[in-house]
Amino acid sequence: MTLIYVLLGLAILVGLFDLWLRYVYRYPKRRHRTTPEELGIPFREVRFPTRRGRQLYGWWVPAQEKPSGPAPTLILVHGWARNVESVLPLIKGLHPLGYNLLAFDLRNHGSSDPDKYPNLLKFSEDIRAAVDFLIGNLLSEPSPIGIIGLSVGGGAAIHAAAFDIRISSVVTIGALASPVDVMRLEFQKRHIPFYPLGWLSIKYLQFKLGLNFEEIAPVNNIGKVRAKILLIHGENDAVIPVEQGKRLQIAGNPDRTLLWIVPEKNHTDCVEHPEFRAKVEAFLQETIPVKIASAASSRSR
Length: 301
Known about the structure:
The protein has helices at 2-24, 88-94, 120-138, 152-162, 179-189, 194-209, 213-216, 242-251, 276-287, 295-300, and strands at residues 44-49, 55-61, 73-77, 100-104, 145-150, 167-173, 228-234, 257-262. By secondary structure, the chain is an alpha/beta fold. Residues 295-301 have low confidence and may be disordered.
């Protein structure tokens, strides 16, 4: 009889964990409503494959200016429960600088294919699939590739760059250092004790996903990144506190990892700071510069 009660208790516990897992992954999957066309920027829709036979939806925005050599390309990655539309402010600011831009919906987001239990590792795979697509289909000749990632998209960009030397430059905005730390904070906000409920929930989630969160944590992979990294983090970020940005900087290669803490900004409004564009442009020009052909040299040719 005791064994029956034990098994019944375990079954109830697993059921509760499954309900919690559904709650964690319950977010509105919204498709974009505006496109670069509303900004007067030419683009074309693209689809490309990623892992597990899924297809990703994106926008290809060729460089506006004619560079003197191959134009560098920036891959723009949105955050959790967002879609490609959320990077339109970046497209507006970056397009005049002479970069090719590829923005896309991560798996289970926007117009991309669904996939059960999206996570940082899958998003990293999607970024590397975007690099494959660029090189194999969109770029006529080799050129530098950079990533700009928002929130979990920034964490995924760090992870992708740690395992893909084709990525030469990384800019993150509000990137997480550790999935466990983010979940721990969410438990605190809901007044759920981490031990034992939070700890057991995370263990069950890792089992269900077949992942080790510490192994995929950006803070444990940023030291492997060969690209230069600009970490941008809002001083008042309540979603992913600025301490996570500081942890990333400490864990990164000191010669290649910069941190800009944006005064008085939160998780989603760093792009509104008056120095944002200048700082990002200077970093990109240092790491993957655009060389625009001068009018004089164009006439001489």
